[in-house]
């Protein structure tokens, strides 16, 4: 080998150079997408969750109703012994004779919740006031004074009843047809029954029974009693939020005391055996949004 050839580096083999170039290009190709994706992620804005208002009251509703309660007879009885003005002692349980609740208007209001398309419930408060008619010969086992015809006996007069009902009700809506939704329902609750008594006894002819008899009601009772109700009717869509509700309602109120009976020789307690009312009612239901 001569001196010129010994000082010069031999050139690299061309196939080797091609292989290195391919490796370099492959590395660049592999790295570019990853870095591009990372850059894209960093460049994307972070979106905060959009505010979605909570829907409150879309299934709640208010209601108000007026009703007509039909006249209804009730059973009454008195307990404890007492002596009437003619000297006869009444020691048996007995009926006062005839007793009835007059027909009257009633009013109610409440609020409720539509659970599903077919099930809803509400809480309602009802108020009604009517006259209580008491009559019959049950107050005395004796005949009226001799000036009256034989067979006449002393009887009562009129009083007043005020009742508040608080009820929890559930309804089954039976589907809507051209805006009309029939339903059935039931409710349970309590009724506060207050008797206002002013009931001097008179004979059936209208003549006073006399100072010796002097029967009078006093101390009208005021108590809470168990009550339940059954309902049926239909509602009509006046607007998307407002419904006209017309239906029938039956309510049963448990027994309780009416008041005290004073006569001559003692005092007896007058009770009713409970009573029921048959009612036609109409009202409006307004859905809240």
Relevant terms:
289 residues; mainly beta; Porin; eight-stranded antiparallel beta barrel; four-stranded antiparallel β-sheet; 18 strands; 12% helix; Beta-barrel_OMP; OMP/PagP_B-barrel
SSE order and pairing:
Layout: H1 3-6, H2 14-43, E1 60-69, E2 72-73, E3 76-79, E4 82-83, E5 89-90, E6 98-101, E7 104-114, E8 119-135, E9 154-155, E10 158-173, E11 180-196, E12 202-203, E13 216-218, E14 222-237, E15 242-253, E16 256-263, E17 266-272, E18 275-287
Antiparallel strand pairs: 1-7, 1-18, 2-6, 3-17, 4-5, 6-8, 7-8, 8-10, 9-12, 10-11, 11-14, 13-16, 14-15, 15-18, 16-17
Give the fraction of residues assigned to helices: 10-25%
CATH architecture: Beta Barrel
Mean pLDDT equals 75
The residue ranges in which pLDDT falls below 50 over 5 or more consecutive positions are: 137-153, 202-208
**What class would the helix/strand composition place it in?**
mainly beta
Broad CATH class: Mainly Beta
Q: Order of strands across the widest beta sheet?
A: 1-7-8-10-11-14-15-18
Shape: rod-shaped
Largest sheet: 8 strands, antiparallel, barrel
Compact summary:
InterPro entries: Beta-barrel_OMP, OMP/PagP_B-barrel. The protein is mainly β and 289 residues long.
Structure overview:
The structure is a single chain. The protein has one domain (60-287): Porin. The termini are far apart. The longest helix is centred in the first third of the chain and has 30 residues, at 14-43. The protein is rod-shaped. A hairpin with a 2-residue loop joins strand 16 and strand 17 (266-272). The strands form four sheets. It has an eight-stranded antiparallel beta barrel with strand order 1-7-8-10-11-14-15-18. Strands 3-17-16-13 form a four-stranded antiparallel β-sheet, with no helix packed on it. Strands 4-5 form a two-stranded antiparallel sheet. The chain has helices at 3-6, 14-43, and strands at 60-69, 72-73, 76-79, 82-83, 89-90, 98-101, 104-114, 119-135, 154-155, 158-173, 180-196, 202-203, 216-218, 222-237, 242-253, 256-263, 266-272, 275-287. Helices cover 12% and strands 51% of the residues. It is mainly beta and 289 residues long.
